[in-house]
Amino acid sequence: MTALVLGPHLRHVSHHTATIWVETDRPCEVRVVGREHGVDAAARTFTAHGHHYAVIEIEGLAAGARVPYEVLADGETVWPEGDTGFPPSQIRTLDPAGALRISFGSCRRSPGTVEQFGHDALTSLAERLRAGGDSVVWPDVLLMVGDQIYADELTDEMREFIRAHRGPGELPVEEVANYEEYTYLYKLAWYDDPAVRWLLSTVPTFTIFDDHDIRDDWNTSYTWRQQMWSQPWWRDRITGGIGSYWIYQHLGNMSPQDRASDPVFKAVRTASDSTGDAGAVLDEFAEKADKEPASTRWSYAHDWGGVRLIVVDSRCSRLLTADRRGMLDDEEFAWLDDQCQGGMDHLLIASSLPYLLPRTIHHAESWNEAVAGGAWGKTAAKLGEKVRQAADLEHWAAFESSFRTLAHDVIAVGRGERGPAPASISFLSGDIHYSYLARVTEPGTESKISQVVCSPLRNPLAGVFRWANRLAYARATGWPFRALAKLAKVPATPLRWRLTDGPWFDNAIATVELSGRDCGVRWETPKDGGRLAEMARARITG
């Protein structure tokens, strides 16, 4: 009998459509059935590197629908898997008449013990929804903004898998090496915890990758890329990482229309049908996506009523050459510029890396970029590159021209120069393993501009790093680094901002709630054996 390897995952939803993603243990027809609501949709699996996947698109749903569903493989029920203690999984479409709630976070280590990583905010959210049912408020969307897996920080379970599948002495040590090992990382992250598996089956989920989904400091600089491609094992590693991301994460971010027109999806399905396995096609695509970032767009945008969510790839689409450096390549930035428009009640820009950092860190990174770029000579440039890689100086502030370009776009939207100004423009980010709210104070705009950070879901900072970041949070530590930046001829920033709430260093999940022209956010952390408790809340507008 066919079995599920991973899933079902409820991915892209709109007001009238939904997407279900699954991995099965053999080729088959996968059918999603919602008997009470007349739902019946099916798709054949496609195969890549011996793994079998299906993307099932359901259309014609009512807005705000709650449709219990089953998954069948070749006519046999494979989900739900017996009495799990969890309610039936539901297809949950968006309701334009109600508030929109987006829960988000990043940086989740799994598996592992509470002593290692603390309680899992995703598990805690699942348990609250399971226990509370319709009596508790559900998120409409779950957005995971990076480090869904850790390909370079292995758990004991992953090490055991590698020992069983590799020959002695094979590289890299203490890191995954190829597509097959990536698939097991995803299984560990999303299968072994029943609560998280159920959560992903019943709450619409969107993702974007960050560095640990591939490797720490991924694409931090041109020098870093040269160093990695000089390693004999890197090609299998990067093609496995990007290829698996495309299947396990990116496919579900796309709308049905985007998938239908996606040439890679068509090529993979065609190769699977004709040769039985699309692994070679996937590898070729993944290598090109790494070597020619402009060939692929990982960023995406969705409009839900009066809300536009723009999710920006701040990793794979970087412009890194011997002569130029940008957070995004030219094509990606042109796309982002087109998406930054008014006429919405709220504009959300999600980037795994915070756009507005504590001012101390921002100035340190912009100074380092200038020095590494030669502002103080060749010898200082070499030292600056070493410092950049050692200290992870690779956020938006370390791409000063990109930071400046996006700032001008946001200011134009906030002043109503691109259509009626939204009530709020909010950056949603993770990565740095603590949470905070920053508000833009200058220049003045009609829109309230803010940075909302929530990190980690499950991977807290060690004590010494907490101390260092608390110090960076202090306003008094910012001016020496601004002075250094000025000495390196870094211009003043177009925006001024102030951190008003936080920092908080606990595992957490944040929820942004948008209703009409109102916007607010709350952070929650697992307490008392994993029960979610409110850590803080703030109004963005009003």
Protein model, in words:
The longest helix is centred in the middle third of the chain and has 20 residues, at 234-253. By secondary structure, the chain is of the alpha+beta class. It is globular and about 70 Å long. The mean pLDDT is 95. The chain is built from 16 helices and 25 strands. The strands form six sheets. Strands 14-15-18-19-21-20-22 form a seven-stranded mixed sheet, with no helix packed on it. Strands 13-12-11-23-24-25 form a six-stranded mixed sheet. Strands 1-2-6-5 form a four-stranded antiparallel sheet. The protein has a single domain, classed as Alkaline phosphatase D (PhoD) (Purple Acid Phosphatase, chain A, domain 2), CATH 3.60.21.
